[in-house]
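Here is one chain, start to finish.
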Amino acid sequence: MKKNDSEKKIHLGENVKCLMRAFHLQQNELAEKAGYSESQLSNILRKADIDEETLARLAKGLGNGVTPEMIKAYSHDDTVSYIINNYTQNVENGGAGSLNGNHGNVHDSKFTEGSTQNNYAAEQAFEFLREVAELKTEIMRLRMKYEPDKVEEELKAKK
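Its structure:
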């Protein structure tokens, strides 16, 4: 039997780990920024329930406007679902991606730094995806300039 959303237990340590990945923070970096030893942080991240003082220290260590409330409200499944449903990218056709019709302009989205939206980490993911798309497009332009025959062969092979 599938549990509904109200029956799902929030695991704050897992939420922090997801946010660490989103912000490209290693455990040793967060430990230093939050004022913990690596072993202390490791123990904290195993906990489903984390006290308010510790959450505040972790939020400060994560930076990027993260608050304890964001850590509590974070949902990895919701973030992934939001990205899948709202972000499209077609680099092969020269697309710049779009987010709810904003054509890749992440800052026009409903997310703002420091917001309490439970999908706040998605903003960072969108920014990363936008940068990756720009790099891929630029690489393709350079390859077309310096090795057009090879690129043409690769594109034909994909068809």
